Amino acid sequence: MERVLERGNLFRALQKVQRNKGGAGIDGMTVDDLPAFLKLHWPSIKEQLINGNYQPKAVKRVLIPKSDGSKRKLGIPTVLDRLIQQALLQILQPEWDQTFSHFSFGFRPRRSAHQAVKLSEIYVNDNRHWVVDMDLEKFFDKVNHDVLMHRVKQRVKDKRVLKLINRYLNAGALVNDQWVEAKEGTPQGGPLSPLLANLLLDDLDKELESRDLKFVRYADDCNIYVRSERAGHRVLSSITQWLKKQLKLTVNANKSAVDRPWKRRFLGFTFTAREAINGSR
Protein backbone atom coordinates (compact mmCIF):
# COMPACT_ATOMS: atom_id res chain seq x y z
CA MET A 1 0.00 0.00 0.00
CA GLU A 2 2.86 2.37 0.72
CA ARG A 3 4.10 1.90 -2.86
CA VAL A 4 0.62 2.62 -4.19
CA LEU A 5 0.46 5.83 -2.15
CA GLU A 6 3.97 7.02 -3.04
CA ARG A 7 3.82 10.63 -4.25
CA GLY A 8 5.24 9.99 -7.73
CA ASN A 9 2.89 7.07 -8.35
CA LEU A 10 -0.12 9.14 -7.29
CA PHE A 11 0.93 12.03 -9.52
CA ARG A 12 1.19 9.71 -12.53
CA ALA A 13 -2.21 8.24 -11.67
CA LEU A 14 -3.76 11.71 -11.46
CA GLN A 15 -2.32 12.64 -14.85
CA LYS A 16 -3.70 9.43 -16.38
CA VAL A 17 -7.20 10.00 -14.95
CA GLN A 18 -7.16 13.59 -16.20
CA ARG A 19 -6.08 12.51 -19.70
CA ASN A 20 -8.78 9.85 -19.85
CA LYS A 21 -11.44 12.36 -18.78
CA GLY A 22 -14.71 10.43 -18.54
CA GLY A 23 -17.95 11.27 -16.78
CA ALA A 24 -18.64 11.88 -13.13
CA GLY A 25 -19.59 9.07 -10.77
CA ILE A 26 -22.47 9.02 -8.32
CA ASP A 27 -21.09 11.99 -6.34
CA GLY A 28 -21.14 14.28 -9.38
CA MET A 29 -17.47 15.20 -9.05
CA THR A 30 -15.74 15.80 -12.39
CA VAL A 31 -12.12 15.25 -13.36
CA ASP A 32 -11.63 19.03 -13.27
CA ASP A 33 -12.91 19.14 -9.69
CA LEU A 34 -10.51 16.45 -8.47
CA PRO A 35 -7.28 18.46 -7.81
CA ALA A 36 -9.03 20.98 -5.54
CA PHE A 37 -10.84 18.14 -3.72
CA LEU A 38 -7.55 16.32 -3.11
CA LYS A 39 -5.89 19.42 -1.65
CA LEU A 40 -8.57 19.53 1.04
CA HIS A 41 -9.27 15.86 1.68
CA TRP A 42 -6.30 13.73 0.60
CA PRO A 43 -4.63 13.52 4.07
CA SER A 44 -7.72 11.89 5.60
CA ILE A 45 -8.27 9.63 2.54
CA LYS A 46 -4.63 8.52 2.65
CA GLU A 47 -4.95 7.70 6.35
CA GLN A 48 -8.05 5.58 5.62
CA LEU A 49 -6.16 3.69 2.90
CA ILE A 50 -3.13 3.08 5.15
CA ASN A 51 -5.35 1.87 7.97
CA GLY A 52 -7.41 -0.35 5.65
CA ASN A 53 -10.63 1.55 6.39
CA TYR A 54 -11.30 3.20 3.03
CA GLN A 55 -14.71 2.37 1.60
CA PRO A 56 -15.18 2.91 -2.17
CA LYS A 57 -18.43 4.37 -3.43
CA ALA A 58 -20.83 2.44 -5.65
CA VAL A 59 -20.39 2.81 -9.39
CA LYS A 60 -22.84 4.69 -11.58
CA ARG A 61 -24.59 2.18 -13.86
CA VAL A 62 -24.81 3.13 -17.53
CA LEU A 63 -26.17 0.89 -20.31
CA ILE A 64 -24.32 1.03 -23.64
CA PRO A 65 -26.18 -0.30 -26.73
CA LYS A 66 -24.40 -3.12 -28.62
CA SER A 67 -24.58 -3.93 -32.32
CA ASP A 68 -26.71 -7.02 -31.67
CA GLY A 69 -29.41 -4.97 -29.94
CA SER A 70 -28.44 -5.94 -26.40
CA LYS A 71 -26.88 -3.57 -23.87
CA ARG A 72 -23.56 -3.68 -22.09
CA LYS A 73 -23.36 -2.62 -18.46
CA LEU A 74 -20.79 0.08 -17.80
CA GLY A 75 -19.96 0.97 -14.19
CA ILE A 76 -18.50 4.46 -13.76
CA PRO A 77 -16.56 4.85 -10.48
CA THR A 78 -16.18 8.25 -8.86
CA VAL A 79 -13.12 10.17 -10.07
CA LEU A 80 -11.52 9.62 -6.64
CA ASP A 81 -11.98 5.86 -6.95
CA ARG A 82 -10.64 5.99 -10.52
CA LEU A 83 -7.53 7.71 -9.13
CA ILE A 84 -7.02 5.07 -6.43
CA GLN A 85 -7.65 2.20 -8.86
CA GLN A 86 -5.20 3.71 -11.34
CA ALA A 87 -2.55 4.02 -8.60
CA LEU A 88 -3.14 0.35 -7.72
CA LEU A 89 -2.94 -0.65 -11.37
CA GLN A 90 0.42 1.08 -11.85
CA ILE A 91 1.97 -1.02 -9.06
CA LEU A 92 0.26 -4.35 -9.74
CA GLN A 93 0.32 -4.50 -13.55
CA PRO A 94 4.13 -4.48 -14.06
CA GLU A 95 4.46 -7.37 -11.59
CA TRP A 96 1.56 -9.45 -12.88
CA ASP A 97 1.93 -8.75 -16.58
CA GLN A 98 5.36 -10.35 -16.88
CA THR A 99 3.83 -13.69 -15.86
CA PHE A 100 0.91 -13.52 -18.32
CA SER A 101 0.72 -15.57 -21.49
CA HIS A 102 2.48 -14.50 -24.68
CA PHE A 103 -0.80 -15.24 -26.49
CA SER A 104 -2.86 -12.69 -24.54
CA PHE A 105 -3.09 -9.21 -26.09
CA GLY A 106 -5.93 -7.25 -24.48
CA PHE A 107 -5.34 -4.37 -22.03
CA ARG A 108 -1.62 -5.02 -21.72
CA PRO A 109 1.33 -2.64 -22.15
CA ARG A 110 2.89 -2.65 -25.62
CA ARG A 111 0.28 -5.11 -26.93
CA SER A 112 -2.56 -4.43 -29.34
CA ALA A 113 -5.50 -5.85 -31.26
CA HIS A 114 -3.45 -5.64 -34.45
CA GLN A 115 -0.82 -7.96 -32.96
CA ALA A 116 -3.58 -10.40 -32.00
CA VAL A 117 -4.96 -10.36 -35.54
CA LYS A 118 -1.46 -10.83 -36.99
CA LEU A 119 -0.89 -13.96 -34.90
CA SER A 120 -4.31 -15.28 -35.95
CA GLU A 121 -3.30 -14.73 -39.57
CA ILE A 122 -0.12 -16.76 -39.02
CA TYR A 123 -2.18 -19.66 -37.65
CA VAL A 124 -4.58 -19.56 -40.60
CA ASN A 125 -1.72 -19.50 -43.09
CA ASP A 126 -0.26 -22.52 -41.31
CA ASN A 127 -3.22 -24.57 -42.57
CA ARG A 128 -5.22 -24.23 -39.37
CA HIS A 129 -8.38 -23.65 -41.34
CA TRP A 130 -10.84 -24.21 -38.50
CA VAL A 131 -11.41 -21.84 -35.59
CA VAL A 132 -13.05 -22.36 -32.22
CA ASP A 133 -14.61 -18.93 -31.79
CA MET A 134 -15.44 -18.85 -28.09
CA ASP A 135 -17.72 -16.25 -26.50
CA LEU A 136 -17.88 -16.03 -22.70
CA GLU A 137 -21.39 -15.16 -21.60
CA LYS A 138 -21.48 -11.64 -20.06
CA PHE A 139 -17.95 -12.18 -18.77
CA PHE A 140 -17.40 -8.93 -16.87
CA ASP A 141 -20.83 -9.27 -15.24
CA LYS A 142 -20.34 -12.93 -14.29
CA VAL A 143 -16.86 -13.07 -12.74
CA ASN A 144 -17.03 -15.09 -9.52
CA HIS A 145 -15.57 -13.00 -6.71
CA ASP A 146 -14.28 -15.94 -4.67
CA VAL A 147 -12.51 -17.48 -7.66
CA LEU A 148 -10.96 -14.13 -8.60
CA MET A 149 -9.89 -13.16 -5.06
CA HIS A 150 -8.25 -16.56 -4.58
CA ARG A 151 -5.96 -15.70 -7.49
CA VAL A 152 -5.35 -12.17 -6.22
CA LYS A 153 -4.31 -13.57 -2.82
CA GLN A 154 -1.73 -15.76 -4.52
CA ARG A 155 0.00 -12.59 -5.75
CA VAL A 156 -0.71 -9.95 -3.09
CA LYS A 157 0.25 -10.32 0.56
CA ASP A 158 -0.67 -6.85 1.86
CA LYS A 159 -4.04 -7.40 3.55
CA ARG A 160 -4.97 -3.74 3.10
CA VAL A 161 -4.64 -4.07 -0.68
CA LEU A 162 -6.60 -7.32 -0.67
CA LYS A 163 -9.37 -5.71 1.38
CA LEU A 164 -9.45 -2.69 -0.94
CA ILE A 165 -9.72 -4.78 -4.11
CA ASN A 166 -12.44 -6.90 -2.52
CA ARG A 167 -14.35 -3.77 -1.55
CA TYR A 168 -14.14 -2.48 -5.12
CA LEU A 169 -15.64 -5.76 -6.33
CA ASN A 170 -18.45 -5.50 -3.79
CA ALA A 171 -19.15 -1.76 -3.95
CA GLY A 172 -22.31 -2.30 -5.97
CA ALA A 173 -24.00 0.08 -8.39
CA LEU A 174 -26.47 2.91 -8.26
CA VAL A 175 -29.33 2.25 -10.69
CA ASN A 176 -32.19 4.78 -10.83
CA ASP A 177 -31.25 6.01 -7.33
CA GLN A 178 -31.38 2.45 -6.01
CA TRP A 179 -28.26 0.67 -4.70
CA VAL A 180 -27.81 -2.74 -6.33
CA GLU A 181 -25.63 -5.33 -4.61
CA ALA A 182 -22.67 -6.75 -6.54
CA LYS A 183 -22.70 -10.49 -5.88
CA GLU A 184 -20.53 -11.18 -8.93
CA GLY A 185 -18.73 -9.39 -11.72
CA THR A 186 -16.03 -6.75 -12.04
CA PRO A 187 -17.57 -3.56 -13.42
CA GLN A 188 -16.36 -2.33 -16.81
CA GLY A 189 -15.38 1.30 -16.46
CA GLY A 190 -12.83 1.11 -13.67
CA PRO A 191 -9.06 1.09 -14.41
CA LEU A 192 -8.52 -2.09 -12.38
CA SER A 193 -11.13 -4.32 -14.06
CA PRO A 194 -9.13 -5.22 -17.21
CA LEU A 195 -6.15 -6.33 -15.10
CA LEU A 196 -8.38 -8.46 -12.86
CA ALA A 197 -9.99 -9.98 -15.97
CA ASN A 198 -6.57 -10.87 -17.39
CA LEU A 199 -5.53 -12.38 -14.06
CA LEU A 200 -8.54 -14.69 -14.03
CA LEU A 201 -8.33 -15.63 -17.71
CA ASP A 202 -4.60 -16.29 -17.47
CA ASP A 203 -5.65 -19.64 -16.02
CA LEU A 204 -7.43 -20.34 -19.31
CA ASP A 205 -4.33 -19.29 -21.26
CA LYS A 206 -2.13 -21.63 -19.25
CA GLU A 207 -4.59 -24.50 -19.74
CA LEU A 208 -4.63 -23.97 -23.51
CA GLU A 209 -0.82 -23.79 -23.55
CA SER A 210 -0.56 -27.03 -21.57
CA ARG A 211 -2.67 -28.70 -24.28
CA ASP A 212 -0.39 -27.26 -26.98
CA LEU A 213 -3.32 -25.48 -28.61
CA LYS A 214 -2.75 -22.50 -30.92
CA PHE A 215 -4.85 -19.60 -29.68
CA VAL A 216 -5.17 -15.85 -29.42
CA ARG A 217 -6.96 -14.08 -26.60
CA TYR A 218 -7.94 -10.43 -26.42
CA ALA A 219 -9.71 -9.80 -23.10
CA ASP A 220 -12.73 -12.14 -23.15
CA ASP A 221 -12.48 -12.81 -26.91
CA CYS A 222 -10.67 -16.11 -27.48
CA ASN A 223 -10.03 -17.90 -30.79
CA ILE A 224 -8.41 -21.35 -30.96
CA TYR A 225 -7.09 -22.51 -34.34
CA VAL A 226 -7.15 -26.20 -35.25
CA ARG A 227 -6.73 -28.34 -38.40
CA SER A 228 -10.10 -30.11 -38.50
CA GLU A 229 -13.73 -29.51 -37.66
CA ARG A 230 -13.76 -32.61 -35.50
CA ALA A 231 -10.83 -31.33 -33.42
CA GLY A 232 -12.61 -27.99 -33.07
CA HIS A 233 -15.77 -29.51 -31.63
CA ARG A 234 -13.72 -31.65 -29.27
CA VAL A 235 -11.80 -28.58 -28.03
CA LEU A 236 -14.94 -26.45 -27.64
CA SER A 237 -16.70 -29.12 -25.60
CA SER A 238 -13.68 -29.79 -23.41
CA ILE A 239 -12.82 -26.14 -22.73
CA THR A 240 -16.48 -25.30 -22.05
CA GLN A 241 -16.51 -27.91 -19.27
CA TRP A 242 -13.13 -26.78 -17.96
CA LEU A 243 -14.23 -23.13 -17.73
CA LYS A 244 -17.40 -24.06 -15.89
CA LYS A 245 -15.60 -26.27 -13.39
CA GLN A 246 -12.40 -24.29 -12.79
CA LEU A 247 -13.39 -20.64 -13.26
CA LYS A 248 -17.21 -20.85 -12.92
CA LEU A 249 -17.59 -19.16 -16.31
CA THR A 250 -20.18 -20.00 -18.96
CA VAL A 251 -19.53 -20.25 -22.69
CA ASN A 252 -22.36 -18.70 -24.71
CA ALA A 253 -23.40 -21.57 -26.97
CA ASN A 254 -25.42 -19.28 -29.25
CA LYS A 255 -22.48 -16.99 -30.03
CA SER A 256 -19.68 -19.58 -29.98
CA ALA A 257 -18.94 -21.79 -32.96
CA VAL A 258 -16.52 -24.09 -34.76
CA ASP A 259 -16.24 -22.63 -38.23
CA ARG A 260 -13.92 -21.51 -41.01
CA PRO A 261 -11.92 -18.41 -39.95
CA TRP A 262 -13.08 -16.53 -43.04
CA LYS A 263 -16.69 -16.97 -41.93
CA ARG A 264 -16.11 -15.39 -38.51
CA ARG A 265 -14.96 -12.00 -37.28
CA PHE A 266 -12.21 -11.49 -34.70
CA LEU A 267 -11.65 -7.97 -33.35
CA GLY A 268 -13.32 -6.52 -36.43
CA PHE A 269 -11.36 -8.61 -38.95
CA THR A 270 -12.19 -11.51 -41.21
CA PHE A 271 -9.60 -13.86 -42.72
CA THR A 272 -8.71 -15.76 -45.83
CA ALA A 273 -6.05 -18.44 -45.92
CA ARG A 274 -3.57 -15.83 -47.13
CA GLU A 275 -4.37 -12.51 -45.52
CA ALA A 276 -6.47 -10.60 -43.04
CA ILE A 277 -9.07 -8.31 -44.49
CA ASN A 278 -10.19 -5.36 -42.43
CA GLY A 279 -13.89 -5.27 -41.65
CA SER A 280 -16.31 -3.55 -39.34
CA ARG A 281 -17.30 -4.98 -35.97
Task: Give a nutshell description of this structure.
The protein has 281 residues and is an alpha+beta fold. The chain has helices spanning 7-20, 34-51, 79-97, 113-125, 139-142, 145-153, 159-169, 193-210, 229-247, and strands spanning 59-65, 71-76, 130-135, 173-175, 178-180, 214-218, 221-226, 257-259, 269-271, 276-278.
The fraction of residues assigned to DSSP E strands is: 15-25%
Name the strands of the widest sheet in spatial order: 2-1-4-5
How many E-type strands?
10
SSE-based structural type: alpha+beta
Question: Could you give a short account of the major beta sheet?
Answer: 4 strands, mixed
Q: Estimate percent helicity.
A: 40-55%
The Cα radius of gyration reads 20 Å
The end-to-end span amounts to 40 Å
Shape: elongated
Order of helices and strands: HHEEHHEHHHEEHEEHEEE
The chain-level mean pLDDT equals 93
Q: Count helical runs.
A: 9
Uncertain ranges: 275-281
